[in-house]
Amino acid sequence: MATQHSRSAARFMMAPAVILLLGWMLVPLTMTVWFSFTRYLPMRGDSIERGLEWVGFENYVRFIGSSSFWPSVQATLVIVGGVLAITVVLGVLLAILLDQPFWGQGIVRILVIAPFFVMPTVSALVWKNMMMDPVNGMLAHLWRFFGATPVSWLSEASVQSIILIVSWQWLPFATLILLTAIQSLDSEQLEAAEMDGAPVLSRFWHIVLPHLGRAITIVILIQTIFLLSIFAEIFVTTGGSFGTRTLTYLIFQRVVDSQNIGLGSAGGVYAIILANIVAIFLMRIVGKNLDK
Amino acid sequence: MARAVSTRRKIATTALAWAIGLLIFFPIFWTILTSFKTEAQAIANPPLFWGFDFTLENYAVVQERSNYMRFLWNSVIIAGGSTLLGIVIAVPAAWSMAFVPSRRTKDILLWMLSTKMLPAVGVLYPISLIFVQFGLLDTRGGLIVVLMFINLPIIVWMLYTYFREIPGEILEAARMDGAGLKEEILYVLTPMAIPGIASTILLNFILAWNEAFWTLNLTAASAAPLTAFIASYSSPEGLFFAKLSAASTMAIAPILILGWFSQKQLVRGLTFGAVK
Amino acid sequence: MGRITLDKVRKAFGDVQVIPPLDLTIEDGEFVVFVGPSGCGKSTLLRLIAGLEDVSGGQIRIDGQDATRVPPAKRRLAMVFQSYALYPHMSVRKNIAFPLRMAGLDKAEQDKRVNAAADVLNLTDYLDRRPGQLSGGQRQRVAIGRAIVREPAAFLFDEPLSNLDAALRVGMRLEISELHKRLKTTMVYVTHDQVEAMTMADKIVVLRAGHIEQVGSPLELYRAPRNLFVAGFIGSPKMNLIGGALAAQHDATTIGIRPEHIAVSTDAGDWHGTVGVSEHLGSDTFFHVTCEGIAEPVTVRVGGEVALHYGDSVWLTPDKSQIHRFDTEGLRIA
C-alpha cells in the first residue's frame, strides 16, 4: 500500500538492477543460442564479422551423438547424486549430533563449517596432494599403516575421489541448514511424543524427519544447482580424465580446448535447460515461502 | 528447554562430536601444519605431527617466487569491488520491493533468482567475446562486473529479507516528519538496515572471493586473484608440499576468519529466506 | 489552524471500494474520533488524510487549501502510530528532534523545542536513552513528543493506545485529552474502542464498511443513535435490542433499551425472567436475565451490590422515556 508518488519512485529505483540483470541474462544467452545453430570454429577463421554459417540443429544432434556425451551425463549424475546422498544423510546425522548438548559446541561447529569457506581450487589441490597423493598423501600413510597398498585415488577411483572432495566442501552447508531447521523444531512436540511413549527411533522417524522434509528439499535443490556446474574441483585434479568429465566440463572442453563454439553452445543450451528443470522446483518452494 | 542430560551421555556426545569435527577439519589443519615444515619433513614417512623444525621459510618463498601479495590484492579488489557495486545497485531495488510491493514483486524476485541458476559454462564464450571486444579480458574491472552480476540476485534477496523485517510504519513516520525520499533512505532506512547490509556484504565477499569459474577463465597474469594463483600449483610435482600448504593457508586464512562470523547469514543468504 | 475538509473522498484498492464517496468536515481545534469495528476503513481514512495513501477520487482540503496531491511531508500534519514507529537507532532526543531537523531548524532552536516537549511529557530524564530501553508508555510519550514539537496543523492518532495494558491506557487517555485542552490543536483519533471515543471526543464519527453511520458528540450518539448499528456500537454494556411482539407494541420493528435504563424488582414489573450470569464490578453489577418472550438475554445494570443470584426469578421494568425505536430499515423512528 502506498501512494502514486512512492510507486513511481520505487519503479525508478528498481530499474538499474532489473535492466542490468536482464542484459546480463539475455545478451549472452541470445548469443549462445545463435552460435549453437552455426558452424563456428575460430581456429579455422570463422568469426561473427565474416558471418557464421547456419547449420540448423546439426550441433545439437552431434553433441548428443558424440561418444563423450552419454559418459558425461553419467558422470554428472553419479557425481551429483553421490554428493547429494552423502551430504544429506551425513548432514542430517551431524545436525542432530550438533543439536545435542555437549562441551565445546561453538568450536566444533566452527570446525565442521570451515570447509565451506575454503576456495574450490585450494580444497581440490589440498585433497589431491596432501590427502590423496599415492606416495606422500595422508591416505597413503594410513593405508600403509594398516599394511595395505596405497591407492592412486585420482586415477583408480577418480569419480569416488571427486565425490569425496565435493562432499567435504558441501557437507557443512547441508549440516548448517539442517541444524537451523532442527533448532526451529518445537521441543514441546518432541516432549509430547516422549510423554506418549514413543521411542527414540520412532520420534526421529515420525517427528524430526518430516519436520526436516522442507529443509532437505531445499538443500537438495540448491546443491544440485551448484553441483551441476562444479568446475574448479575437476579442473585442478583430473582435468576431466578418468571418467570425471561432467557435462559442464565437456562443454568447457568443446569451447576452450577444441574451440568448437557451435558445438559447445549447443551443449550449453542443454545444460541451461537441465538447470532450469531443477530451478523450477526450487522456485516453487521459495515462491510459496514468499507468500507467507 | 533446559533438560537434564546425564553426564555420561554428555561425555559420549562430546567425544563423538569432537572426533567428527576434528576429522572434518583435518585437511585444513594438516595444510596449516605442513606449511610450517621444511619440504623434506612435509613428506616424511610416517607423517610428522610434532617434533618438526618450525619454519616460516615457505611463506617467504611463496611470496618471493609468485608475488603472492599481488594475487591477494587482486582478490581483495575483485571481491570487494563486486560486492560494493552490487550493494549500490541492490539497495534501492530491495527497498522498492520490500516497502512498495506490487503484484509483480514476487515474479521479479523469482526471476532474479533464476538468473543465478544459469550454468556459467553455457555463456562462457559469449562473455569472453564481449570481454575481448571491450578490452576487459584479464582486467580487474571486468571481473568485478561479472562477479557483481553473479552475486546480484543473492544480494538483492538478502537485503530484501532484511528490509522486510523493518516495520513500514517507521518509514511512514519519517515521511510524516517531513523526510523526503532521500532523507528517508539516508537517515532512517540505512542506519536501521546496517546489520543486514553488513551481513550481506560479508557473505557476498566470501562468495566472490571463492568464485573459481570466471576468475580462472577470464584472467591470465595481471588480474588473476588467489583462486587462479592456487590453480597454478596444480602442475608441478615433487617437493612442493610445504610451499603448496603455505600458499593455500594464505589464500584461505582471511576468508576462514570472516566465514566464522557469517554462519547465520550463510543460511539466510543461500536458502533465499526459505529456511530460518 | 487546522480545519480539514473531505469532499467526496473515495478510496478503492483495485476493484474493491474501501471508502465510498464521503464528506466530512473537521473543525479547527476539534478532537474528532473515528470509531468502528476492525476493517471499517477508519485507518484508511486517516492515512488518506495523512497522505500515506492516494485518494481514488474527491478532494482533501487543509485550511481551505487543496492538499489532495500534497506529499505527507508537506501537509503540516503529525501522526502517532499504533506501533509508535520510533527510530530505534536514535536516542529519544534525536527522535523528537527528527522532524525539526528535517524542517531545517538550527540546533539551538531544536534543543529548545525538544526540551520543552520533554518537560511537558516527563521525558527529561530519558532523553539520552534509546527507544528500546523505554517502557510502552514512555515510548508512546516519545511518539507524541515527536508529533508536538513541529506545532502541526493537526495531530493524527492511529490506535495509539492499543499496545498498552489496561491501566496505562486510562492514564494515557487522560494525558492526550489534557494535551488537547492545552494545545487546542485539531486532533483526529482512530480507535476501535468506543470507551476511548466516548471519553475523549468532541465529535465522534462512527464508520462501518467505509460509510459514515453517524457524526455527533458523544452524548448525541448515546442519546439518539441514528440506527441499529450505532445503537449497538456505542455504550457499554451494549444496548439491549429486542424485536418481535414486544417491539410491535411500541410501533417499531426493533426497540432498544440500555442496561442502565431498566429497573429490577423481585416482585413486580413489566417483563418476568430468570437471572443468569451476573458480573460484579463493585460500583455496578451487570445481570444477564433470560426473559419470557425475548429471544436474547437482557442485560441490566444496577448500581452497587444487589443480592440476586443465579436462577432467581426477577421482574424488569424499562424506563419508557428511554426506549429507542427502529424501523424495518434499522433507522431510528423519531
Automatic annotation (TrEMBL), chain A:
Alphabetized UniProt keyword annotations: Cell membrane, Membrane, Transmembrane, Transmembrane helix, Transport
A GO CC term assigned to this protein in UniProt: plasma membrane
Cited Pfam families: BPD_transp_1 (PF00528)
GO biological process, one term: transmembrane transport
Topology of this chain in the membrane: Multi-pass membrane protein
Entry's transmembrane regions: 12-37, 75-98, 110-127, 162-182, 212-236, 267-286
Keyword Cytoplasm applies: no
Family matches, as PROSITE patterns: ABC_TM1 (PS50928)
Location within or outside the cell: Cell membrane
InterPro entries to which the protein is assigned, alphabetical: ABC_transporter_permease, MetI-like, MetI-like_sf
Domain ABC transmembrane type-1 span(s) in chain numbering: 73-282
Family from the record: Belongs to the binding-protein-dependent transport system permease family.
Annotated protein name in UniProt: Sorbitol ABC transporter membrane protein /mannitol ABC transporter membrane protein
Organism for this UniProt entry: Roseicyclus mahoneyensis
UniProtKB/TrEMBL annotation, chain B:
GO biological process: transmembrane transport
UniProt xrefs under InterPro entries: BP-dep_ABC_trans_perm, MetI-like, MetI-like_sf
Every ABC transmembrane type-1 domain range: 72-262
GO cellular component annotations of the record: plasma membrane
Membrane-topology annotation of the record: Multi-pass membrane protein
Family membership: Belongs to the binding-protein-dependent transport system permease family.
Name of the protein in question: Sorbitol ABC transporter membrane protein /mannitol ABC transporter membrane protein
Species the sequence originates in: Roseicyclus mahoneyensis
TrEMBL record, chain C:
Stored InterPro entries: AAA+_ATPase (IPR003593), ABC_transporter-like_ATP-bd (IPR003439), ABC_transporter-like_CS (IPR017871), ABC_transpr_MalK-like (IPR015855), ABC_transpr_MalK/UgpC-like (IPR047641), Mo/tungstate-bd_C_term_dom (IPR008995), NA-bd_OB-fold (IPR012340), P-loop_NTPase (IPR027417)
A GO MF term: ABC-type maltose transporter activity
Residue span(s) of domain ABC transporter: 4-234
CC annotations in GO: ATP-binding cassette (ABC) transporter complex, substrate-binding subunit-containing; maltose transport complex
Top-level taxon of the source organism: Bacteria
Entry keyword annotation includes ATP-binding: yes
Pfam families named in the record: ABC_tran (PF00005), TOBE_2 (PF08402)
SMART domains named in the record: AAA (SM00382)
Keywords noted in UniProt: ATP-binding, Nucleotide-binding, Transport
Assigned protein family: Belongs to the ABC transporter superfamily.
PANTHER family reported in the protein's UniProt record: MALTODEXTRIN IMPORT ATP-BINDING PROTEIN MSMX (PTHR43875), MALTOSE_MALTODEXTRIN IMPORT ATP-BINDING PROTEIN MALK (PTHR43875:SF3)
Entry protein name: Sorbitol ABC transporter ATP-binding protein /mannitol ABC transporter ATP-binding protein
